[in-house]
Amino acid sequence: MPVYNGERYLDAVLDGLRRQTVDDLEILVTDNCSTDRTAEIAADHAASDARVVVVRNPVNLGLAGNFNRVFALARGRYFRWNMADDPAEPGLVEACLRVLEAEPDTVLAVPGWDLVDEEGRSTRPEERGRIPVTVWSGDRQQRLAEVNAYVTGPHRIGVLAYLSGLVRTEALWATGLLGSYPRSDRVLLTQLAAVGTFRELADVTQHIRIHPDSAGSGIGDRDYARVWPTFHPGRPVPRTLLPWRARVHLEQARALAAGADGPRQAARLLAGYVRANPRQLLG
After folding, report:
1. Residue 187 falls within a domain, yes or no?
2. CATH code of the domain containing 147
3. CA-only gyration radius of the chain, Å
4. Which of 58, 133, 141, 249 has the fewest Cβ atoms surrounding its Cβ within 10 A?
């Protein structure tokens, strides 16, 4: 669990992780130099549960840096990120683990998910209701086309749930992890889709909290000046943020080219990325 100033929800979220129904579990918390009670809350959980390990970064690594650090420190065959504000039901890890143990070609098991507000109440049910449980192709080229459409299309909020899925550690090491630019999670999922297939579960065990203080909330509003310090703490905001916020498109093109069966397939995938939602290319 990467966290920065997460005192509001951290205690309840850690409690949910400690109640998971699997025995062999490491709960690793990387505190990104929080200035609130995050360190105290995490330490209390570690003191009463040996599975909880807390690491405080010597400096604030930024959002992506902290995500990547907690992954680098993890020791298991399987791994998942849990956001410090997103509660998980006790059966989440076990349900995803069953999938990965039974399906060797599946690299990412995605828990069933819904959207909740600041108080944990269901929110935007009409939006979530329009998003079907996605069935991913076993063919790599088809799957790359599918993920292309998913990360830019009307259901792209689901990327938040996919980032919280249980993944094979070796598969995640085969990607570039998260980049320090907006929407780098879509590039990560594209790279992961080139490694193996995904399975999304129907039973809801992951609650994605939508609130104005979440780490990436400014991205949805296209308030990139507010997002910049999240990725680059202590660095002045550049005069123009266009190259930084547009980097996702360059990295997506590279990910598609790397996963494609040759230049022609790469060109088709890139054309599909542009056609899926051309407005995305503007931000």
Report:
1. yes
2. 3.90.550.10
3. 18
4. 58
Residue-wise pLDDT for 207-236, tens only, equals: 999 887 776 666 766 788 999 999 999 999
What is the model's pTM? 0.94
**Number of domains the chain contains:** 1
- For residue 50, the enclosing domain spans 2-217+245-282
Distance CA 233, CA 259 (A): 33
User: What does the DSSP assignment read for 106-161?
Assistant: EEEEEEEEEEE-TTS-B--HHHHHTSPPP---SSHHHHHHHHHHHHHSTTGGGHHH
d(CA 279, CA 222): 12
Residue 27 lies in a domain: yes
Q: Please report where in the chains the tokens 């005069």 appear, as a residue.
A: 239
CA distance linking residue 176 with residue 105, whole number of Å: 20
The 3-class SS string of 213-230 reads CCCCHHHHCCCHHHHHHH
